[in-house]
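Page 37, top half.
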Amino acid sequence: MKLIAAIDQGTTSTRCLIFNQEGIPVAVAQKEHTQIYPGPGLVEHDPLEISAKAHGVLAEAISLAECVPGDIAAIGITNQRETTVVWEKATGRPINNAIVWQDTRTAGICAELAGQGGQNRYREKTGLPLATYFSGPKIKWLLDNIPDARKRAEKGELLFGNIDTWLIWNLTGAHVTDVTNASRTMLMNLATLDWDEGILCDMSVPRRMLPKIVSSSEVYGTTREGISVAGDLGDQQAALFGQTCFSPGEAKNTYGTGCFMLMNTGEMPVKSNNGLLTTLGYKIGGQNPVYALEGSVAITGALVQWLRDNLGLIRKASDVEALAQSVDDNGGIYFVPAFSGLYAPYWKDSARGAIVGMTRYVNKGHIARAVLEATAYQTREVLDAMNKDCGVALCSLKADGGMVQNELLMQFQADILNVPVTRPKVSETTALGAAYAAGLAVGYWPDIKSLRRNWSADRTWQPEMDSARREVLFRGWQKAVTRTFDWVE
């Protein structure tokens, strides 16, 4: 029986998972890559390192699965979104390190563009506010700041891609991106699913450097080993697909470096009036596109890494749960991790992180607990906004990502949301979604109904906190968030 591979290129590592027809992983290979911080608010990756590690984990996973390339029916790609690469068409050499989604260097560009029409200047067309998060301003920064880059781009010598495009180009030679990744550039029109000429003109981005926009599930090309690359989804849309949220109103939350809640809104985009993003959910071959509402939180799991790497309070990320359990509550403190500004629902690039409510009583256990609680509070803000936009209260939440193994966090999340939180048996939903998209393209799975049969719950956390305490804690969080506003002038 053939297998399906998925390359999951994330913010901190690249992984390859190989799945069988039941959607169960049979092999996993993973390699971390270097995080480059040239200055405050600046985050970069080496695209060549990422490409090399993607090839490496693919070969390693095939070996671990005790199969050969001919046993792999197709490869799906899923990726950290908005991270921007520009490279030479002739040589494949990047003109600069990749500018990562968390990077804030384009704040000036965004402010300048917002000067003519405000922060929501392009929201009607793209579903996105002007923010440093998205790829379009990053492309403009590279073309404006790398010598001769704009001239070379206009001559057709340079290519742009988010990480999905970069990997597919290196694997197959095809210069493509799917609708979900294109919707994160701030350059694609949600109605036409094509690059918007007006926005390209405003940002001075030559159309000829942009990839062709394709569906999330079709054959884009083949690797040198003869394997079809046939699935492409941004990581959060891949998790939505892997969680089988195929019906309007179904939602998932991924707890990773950041936190990302997506709700399927069907075949028509839903405009947000509460700080959420309108984005593409997925598009399967020639079928109609499916849209989603998204709430994006920049720093969640990355805050645990910060405790480990910058403060040395824990030796490994999983130690945070035991440290947080050493105390009964947060000791009166809140940790607002606005390291790269605040994303949904505030969209304030000028915010910066803060710990508030400090007293002599507070110890490292309280800080660890506040770190975990920050993830749950930020998710509550996104869910509240989603309920307002849709007019329907979410009755349960599917959770995935690395942090769902933290049972203290999952219980607190259910408590602060006042809805059940469910972890699936296969928690690798991001890679699974990419595998599903690739498998559908080559007939490995016949339809999405067959994918639903693969999903099953591992554990559900029920809310246990009384409503009065829930609202007191959440009001404290909202007060803490206001203390981070407008720190950067």
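Page 37, bottom half:
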Amino acid sequence: MSDNTTRPILAASAACFRGGKLLLARRANPPQLWTLPGGRVEPGESAADAARRELKEETGVDADILGFAGFREMVMRGANGKVERHYVILSFAARWRAGEARSGPELAEIAWIEPGALTRFETTEGLEEIVAAAKLINEA
């Protein structure tokens, strides 16, 4: 049986769109890649509610969650190959409702970008597929 340091952590993120543009964030801590705003799901909280809450906490943006866009897993290993952290991230499509995006202590930078420009950024693995699915949900 694994302990809490190696057990997968459930997290949620939001692919938030405003006027056709996607809100993209670069993490302040390693690996400092561009990704979607998000974080841990709290006990008793739905993943969709967590995605909305984390978006608001990290960027100041309030949004409506439109639907589930997919999931990714991120396994971080130390130099010895031992698992240090394992995240299961549920991603949701969202539409901007209010608030002006700003970075905070967890985010080094944020930007509203055209979804097609995503390839110009060093992103977390699988982000393009999540954004494509979220864009379809947003446009429906």
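Margin note: The beta strands are 9-18, 21-27, 34-35, 38-40, 62-77, 83-98, 107-113.
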